[in-house]
Each structure stands twice: as structure tokens, then as C-alpha cells.
């Protein structure tokens, strides 16, 4: 019913059913799992009132994180896997799919689950880190970039933050201009 494509690996479709609405798959070399695509296989239908949530856990498989979810209206997702704690080299990971009613989804109510999606604050923190790194890089050339550059970067960050508040996905429309 579901497919999982882990970057650099063959397509996974052979989830093991462990309960009527729960499926699992174990993948080797968990420390090299960073991004994946999760989707409903063609020809399968997920009723409108249901959501399929993909979870991941490293050994000893007691701490699960929400990686992504699909519905009939949105049958695929590409997600980054941000492990809660480091997984050791050569260790395995388990991926679990739970088909749940939308209103009762543990993805929305679970206390021990963490989504891998970025919040506006995460994106602002990321942008500030990029700006700081850029400033330090420019400053490393031996001559001081000066207060003017720092003031300019601060103004840019305020502008960026304002745009993020109005439209969290504005950055997806930015193109590189030569």
C-alpha cells in the first residue's frame, strides 16, 4: 500500500503488517539515512478520513519521531530525517507506518513524537546562522568588514524575519540570478 524511497537505496514496498493499521520496515546503516520520500502506491486508496503517518526510530526502537504523513489528497511527501539522538555507525533503523483517523492521529497529539518539519523560528535561526557565517567568512580575509556590514546584515535579517512572518514559504520562490 505504501512506498518508501531512502536516498541512494532501492525502493521499499515490502512493509511487514504487524497490526491491522500498522506496518514496519527495518533499514540498515541508519546513520546514512537523511532524506526520503514516502508515498501511497499507485492503485491504492486511503479513505478521506484517514492519514498515514511515517515514523522512524533507531535502536533500541523506543523513541519514535514523526517523519511525514500522506493522505489521499496529498499522496506523497519528501522529508528530512533529523534523528533525536545520534545513531551509531552500522546501526539499523525501523520505519513504522500508522494509518489513523485524522482527528485521532498521534502525529497531532503524541507527547513523545517530534515532527521533522521546520517552524518559522527554526527557519529564522537557520537564516541568522547563515548570515553570521557569511559575516565571519568575509571578515576572515584580514581586513575588517566593519560595522556597516554588520548593520546591513542586521537589516537584512529583520527584513527576512518579516517576510517569514507574512509568508513562511517565500524563500521557495527565490531564484539565483547571474
From TrEMBL:
GO terms for cellular component: cytosol; nucleus. Residues 122-173 form the Hikeshi-like C-terminal domain. InterPro entries: Hikeshi-like_C, Hikeshi-like_N, OPI10. Residues 6-85 form the Hikeshi-like N-terminal domain. One of its GO terms (biological process) is protein import into nucleus. It comes from the Eukaryota. Transmembrane segments: none annotated. GO terms for molecular function: nuclear import signal receptor activity. Belongs to the OPI10 family. PANTHER family: HIKESHI FAMILY MEMBER, PROTEIN HIKESHI. This is Hikeshi-like domain-containing protein. It comes from Rhodosorus marinus. The lineage of its organism: Eukaryota, Rhodophyta, Stylonematophyceae, Stylonematales, Stylonemataceae.
